[in-house]
Amino acid sequence: MTTPAPKTNSGAKRPNTDGRELRSFSTKGLELRAEGDGETGQTTKGYACLYDNDTSIGGYFTERFAVGAFTKSLQERDVVALHSHDDGRPMGRKSRDTLRFSDDTKGLGFENDLPDTQDGRDLATSIGRGDIEGMSFRFRAIKEEWDESGDIPKRTVIEAELYEITYTAFPAYPDTEVGMRSLEHARREQRNHNKSAALARIAMRQAQAERKHKSR
What we know:
The chain is an alpha+beta fold. It has three helices and twelve strands, in the order ββββββαββββαββα.
């Protein structure tokens, strides 16, 4: 079943405001290279999200992002890279070309020119030492599909808005609240669809019976 993301309470606290969700992943494959002399000009490279990769979200449902899920968002929205989910510690910005994305069949790749600041240099050192154990990205699902034919529901995010990617030493537990609301929304839509279809079948049978009765 295909469903848009449900509307949410505008008073909800981040990360659930406006349906925004947080996902975390391992930094395995995250690269750090020097573009200049010494410790300046450090650039990170990796994937912010892998496509067609099933992930268990709190054991409540599995989730995957379809190829190109962020393509439209990248054309329309700015995206920032943050340190430890802190808006006051920006590491790069798409609109300033210090954060660049490449969208391929494997996933959403990125390159981030770290700033020559204390935060930027400390982050480069932490990545180089392997102290940074995860990254997160914040998104809002625009179009998704739910499949409940298996043991647990499966969510495929077809289109999503990307807001940020974050370097973090403590990857957050996968956010489930918005996803579960989305699942319940999809279930209600399916129930309404089934009810409408059943009523249509009843009406059709009644019409057929009336025509048969009149023809006698």
